[in-house]
Amino acid sequence: MYRTLVIPLMILMLASACSSDEQGLKDAFRDQMLIGTAINRIQVDGTDPLAKPFIARHFSSITPENAMKWERIHPEPGRYEFALADSMVAFARSNGMAVIGHVLVWHSQTPGWVFQDSPGNPLTRDALLERMRDHIHTVVGHYRGKVLGWDVVNEAVEEDGSMRRTKWLEIIGDDYIEKAFQYAHEADPDAELYYNDYNNEERAKRAGVIPIVKNLQEKGIRIDGVGIQGHWHLDSPDMEIIDESIGEYAALGMKVMITELEINVLPTPSWLYGAEISRTAEYRESLDPYVEGLPDSVETRLNQRYAELFGILLKHRDVVTRVTFWGVHDGYSWKNNWPMPGRTNYPLLFDRNYQPKPAYYAVIREAEKAR
Ligand code: 9MR
């Protein structure tokens, strides 16, 4: 049974997923923008043998989804763990894909010791700045010349546009963002540097991000772009606000990237929109209605939404330099487990068997129309 059915099936799947010479998603966008995906260990260590050729075929850029976060790459004082991220960078470079570094300064996934001295007292401003500098210089320095651009600071603004009360802000003060960008530039003068956030297409939050960009510019500190994460839904945000925000950031001279795109299709209370990962909800079967498959009516809405979105992104293709999907296929999306664990979501362009979904063709059609 195994030999007669499973092995030929695997060969068939490998053949259909493998040939990286075949045209893929990225080819439809060549000369227009990079098309990226987030990757994790399972896709590069051979656990999922289909992943690498598939990624190389369809994407022109990768972002390590977790491997470069502080808690992973610098888990203890003085101990850096580069092996996994190194293998991702090597994989990308051997396939001509750009690498995006994610992320240098964030309030989340940063170990508690970062903000304390060895007896456990809060660090002084100077000591924390020194620690931030050491981290940025070590990590950015390690990948110097190999990373196209870094998410230097992630999610520093609240929904109302005020600064998020993080330990970085509390201990260092407002200028922690300036310092982070300065250190990153010192460590790799050729790397692009980005500010990255979710919901920063919304007016109130955008009004908090714009002064950050202007302040860096006024002080002559390099910033190349603003990342709009794009953790979006079937019914939100309005396309007009995305359009408007790209225009607003571009008017500051920024490149704009959609850095973590997916479109959630599951019923989700709107207070759990965005990506505030400290907020979660318990599993409820009633909010997990498509375990057996996505109904055509919802699939159609997803396709339309992707088509409209890419229509806008392509309209702005002179400033939108990259769109990165937050996961290779539906099975790998974090949206299966956030804000509720264990749901079955369908937010990306490829299904759990690496087959292109109708949304894939909808996006390709938009790219072809824009040529
Ligand atoms: O998708 C990531 C998930 O696998 C991690 O468990 C989580 C915590 O590190 O981070 C997720 O990615 C986040 C990204 O790094 C920053 N923006 C919000 C993303 C979704 O939470």
Please summarize the sheet with the most strands.
8 strands, parallel, barrel
CATH class term: Alpha Beta
How many DSSP-defined strands?
9
- Tell me the name of the CATH homologous superfamily: Glycosidases
The structural domain count equals: 1
How does this structure look, described?
This protein has helices spanning 2-18, 25-28, 41-44, 51-58, 70-73, 83-94, 125-142, 167-172, 176-187, 203-218, 239-251, 296-315, 358-369, and strands spanning 34-39, 61-64, 98-105, 149-154, 192-197, 225-228, 231-233, 255-264, 320-325. The chain has an eight-stranded parallel barrel with strand order 1-2-3-4-5-6-8-9, surrounded by five helices. Helices cover 39% and strands 14% of the residues. By secondary structure, the protein is α/β, with parallel strands linked by helices. Helix 7 runs parallel beside helix 9. Mean pLDDT is 95; it is low at 1-12 and 14-20. It has a single domain, classed as Alpha-Beta Barrel (TIM Barrel), CATH 3.20.20.80. The structure holds ligand 9MR. Ligand 9MR binds next to loops. The site of ligand 9MR has 11 residues, from loops.
Q: Nutshell version of this structure?
A:
The chain has 371 residues and is α/β, with parallel strands linked by helices. 39% of the residues lie in helices and 14% in strands. The protein has a single domain, classed as Glycosidases (TIM Barrel), CATH 3.20.20.80.
Question: What's the topology here?
Answer:
Blueprint (H helix, E strand, L loop, with lengths): L1 H17 L6 H4 L5 E6 L1 H4 L6 H8 L2 E4 L5 H4 L9 H12 L3 E8 L19 H18 L6 E6 L12 H6 L3 H12 L4 E6 L5 H16 L6 E4 L2 E3 L5 H13 L3 E10 L31 H20 L4 E6 L32 H12 L2
Parallel strand pairs: 1-2, 1-9, 2-3, 3-4, 4-5, 5-6, 6-8, 7-8, 8-9
